[in-house]
Each structure stands twice: as structure tokens, then as C-alpha cells.
Amino acid sequence: MLIRYKVSNFLSFNKEQQISMIAGAMKKKEEQLIDDGNLKLLKFSALYGANASGKSNLLKAIDFSKSIILHGVTFNTANLYCRIHNKNKDKISTFEFEVKINNKYYAYGLDMFLSENSIKAEWLYELDKTKNKEVLIYVRKLNEDIELNEKYFDNNKDIINRINVYYSDMKSQDNILFLTIMNKNKDTLYEEFPDNNVTIFRNLFNWFRNSLVIISPNSRLDSSIYFSSEENINKINEIISTFGTGISECKLVDSDMQELKNNIPPDILKDMINTIEKVYVENLKKNSKKTLQQGSIRINSEMYILKKSSPDNLTVQKVALKHKNNDGIYTFSEESDGTQRLFDLIEVLMHKDKEKVYFIDELDRCLHPKLTYEFVKRFLANTKDKNTQLIVTTHESRLLNFDLLRRDEIWFANREKNGPTELYSLEDYNERFDKKIDKAYIEGRYGGVPIFETIFPVGDEENEDSK
Fold it and tell me: Could you tell me the residue range of the domain that residue 297 belongs to?
């Protein structure tokens, strides 16, 4: 789970800014919290702000951090520092996550000179929220020996020596993190010491790789996998029916290999078929009862499902939709952008993973205001027994409703006169629970709204219309 994220000197962020998922003091809607007895975390947060206020830059910062952690510096970062002030070119940029993994809390961060495409430092601490203290695990600084808490690894000489050897090979590398190195061909280490704290290197890296999901306005989740079973399709139909899209049923209809070849690049299709064939053969050798193997792919606004149930049988199907009071069957590509967008996000409501943290930029893109409201409402209802978090940027003011959200679930990004972005929570305003906060937001009480400069004053136009 995400506890907090901090960033400084990146795009429109100058001094350190943060978004926190730690719940405030309010007692209402506690079912929308994840409470482990020591810490209460929010499941949802909505970030508001005018265009160019920097709210999308928060997701870009998180996506940037994730990319550096998983892959290292593989692209030019030279112009990503906060260019509002020229002096920032020679200043450190910092990115830090506080996360909860396996009922423990950690802070992991890194320092970079973005103008030099260079990683300068990284650190990992375990946090004791009950005693408000932190325990060092390691600190790494470029070209310096690693500062390692040997006690944290039970003073195990084998583990400590191996960590030092791994580090010595990369201590002068400024394009990759030690956390990344500790997840390259190190499986034997974690298999040999499964009960030692050394597994935090793997668990933390896997959290970034598998649990943290960032969705930009032009990207999408591939939800085609959820059409691979009748049980899932029934669940999708149940969910979609609550959104008033006019769709009465999702179903799979027969397609053919030639259509798939016409729509999918040959190398991707070949890899997909080879994977299905390989798993099918392996299960046959194991005499597994589960011989049916399948794969799914979303391409050119169509969802395809490949199924192999016997050595000579590979079938192709695609998703089709039926509408209320309409006998026709429609392909997915024939649906509106809003309906396709809803299906793009269906994973957020359907996933069965132990933990997920979703960041969605412009949640309301292509969605009707009522549909956006219903999506958030459905998310909060579906996650009562799940460790799932959803953080979105949006302009949809109808979500600013205390019947739906808590005060601490609402955040603002504000940027005055092309200055740096500031992030803050509605919790800072301590508003009454009967307050019409959507109206107050539009009126500019909390900032984060556009300020227009025009030669046609609004007041004069209204007076003219009333004549």
C-alpha cells in the first residue's frame, strides 16, 4: 500500500511536495479506510486543479520514479528538473515513497542530478509507526561504500558478504540503482534465505513492478484477460449494467485466425501462440486437469481471446456487445469512446490481486459526469475487503460531495502565475460536513481553478443577456 509520496525539483515541483494517503482525524466513512491497528490509510484520493496546475506532473513524477527503479536511466532526463528557476539545474531532485509491504512500513528514495542523467544516492529505511522512529537498512551514495545495517540482516556473514560483492560491481554506476541490481539474477539468494530480511529487496522491487499501476490519458489497461472465463464475463455484465451505458450483455463471438493476423503484428501473434502452446504441452506432461490454455490481447479497439483445448484446436474469439431493446450484436470497436474508456478501467473493479495501487490521470476523460461518480462509488463499495487504492486527477466537481468522499480524500494542485506547483488537502480547511464544497471549489475558495483574463468581463455579459 502507498502511505506517502514526496517529490522535489521535478517539472513544476520546486520545493518538496507530497501526497499522503494517511487518514485524517475525521470519524465518518471509516469503511473507506484500510486500518491495520497502527495506521489508517485512504483507499481513494482525488486531485483537483486547473489546466497546467501540475496535477498531471504528480503522476509523471511517480511514473518516472517507477521507470528508474525498474530499468535505470534509459532516457534523457536533462530537462526534467524544475526549470522555473535556472539554479535548479545544479540542484538535486528527490523522489521518495513510503509504502506498506507485508504489514511493515518502509521509506525508499533516490536523489538525482537530472541535468546530468545521474543517480547520486538512494536509501531504504524500515519505519516503526508506533514508536515514530526509523531503522536504516542501507544508504548508497555514488562512488562511496554502502552503509549497511548488518544487524538488520541478522549479522549473517554470507548475506552481508554477497551484498557487498554485488555492490562493489556497481558502486560507480550512476545510471542504475542498487535495488535494481539486487533484482537481476538474484533468485538463488532469496531462495537460500527465505526467512531473512534480505527478501525486502525482492519484495520492494516487486511492489513497484506488480502493485503500482500508472494510467495516463492516452494509455489503458488491457482488460481482455477478464473475458477469458464465463464467471468473469458474468461479473462484468453485472458491473456494466449499473452504469447506464445501454449495454445489456457482453459475450464472446467466434472470429478467425486470418482476422487476428490482419490486426496483430506477426511477431506479437507468434509469441502469443508460442506461449499458449508451451504452457499447454507442459500441463499435458504433468497430467494436469487444467489443459485448456488461453491468451488475450487488446488491439485496434478490439479484444481477442485465443483458446487451446486440444493439440489440433486453437480457436479465436472476440468481445461483442448487445444493447437493450436492440437485437443487433456490436463489436467493441463500434462502441463510443466513453464505453471503451469504461471497459479500459474495468480491471480497477475486477482485479483479484492481493494489493494494487492505481494512479489514473484524467479519470473523467470521455466519461459522463454521472458515470464518473458511479465509478468512484462502485470502487469504494467493491474494495471494502481489498487492499486497493485509487488516486486520480480529475476536473469532475460532482465528486466534491461529502455524501461520497471524506474530506481527507480530496486534494488540490495550485500554481499561481506560472510558479511552482503546491499540493494540499481539503483536510487543511476543516470544512463542515454539510458544506457545498463543489460550489466553494468552483468559486475559488480552495485555489486550483483557472483565472481568466479577458477583455469581455463576465459581469457585463450577464447584464447584457438579462436585458
Answer: 222-344
Helix 369-382, helix 337-344: angle, nearest 10: 20
- CA distances for 320 relative to 16, 235, 237, 329, angstroms: 48, 16, 12, 6
Asked if 216 and 59 count as a contact pair (C-beta separation under 8 A), the reply is yes
Instruction: Give 338's contacts (C-beta < 8 A, 6+ positions apart).
Output: 245, 366, 367, 368, 371
Average pLDDT on 259-270 reads 86
The Cα 318–Cα 291 span in angstroms is 21
Q: What is the CATH number of the domain that holds 438?
A: 3.40.50
Check whether 268 has a pLDDT greater than 50: yes
From CA 40, how far away is CA 358, in angstroms rounded?
Answer: 18
Residue at which a domain ends, from 300, 315, 344: 344
Q: Does residue 326 sit in the same domain as residue 374?
A: no
d(CA 362, CA 444): 20
Interatomic CA distance for residues 415 and 82, integer angstroms: 13
Edge to edge, the sheet with strand 17-20 lists 17-20, 2-8, 93-101, 104-113, 118-128, 133-141, 147-148
Q: Which of 6, 5, 8, 205 minimizes the C-alpha distance to 114?
A: 8
Residues 215, 217, 218: CA angle, nearest 5 degrees: 95
Per-residue pLDDT of 158-216, as tens digits, reads 999 999 999 999 999 999 999 999 999 999 999 999 999 999 999 999 999 999 999 98
Q: What is the pLDDT of residue 341?
A: 84
Give the residue from 260, 267, 271, 270 showing the smallest Cα distance to 304: 260
Q: Tell me the per-residue pLDDT of 18-51, one tens digit each, with 9 for 90 and over.
A: 999 999 888 888 889 999 889 999 999 999 988 8
**Distance (Å, rounded) from C-alpha 154 to C-alpha 395?**
50
Q: Are residues 100 and 214 in the same domain?
A: yes
- Which of 327, 344, 361 delimits the end of a domain? 344
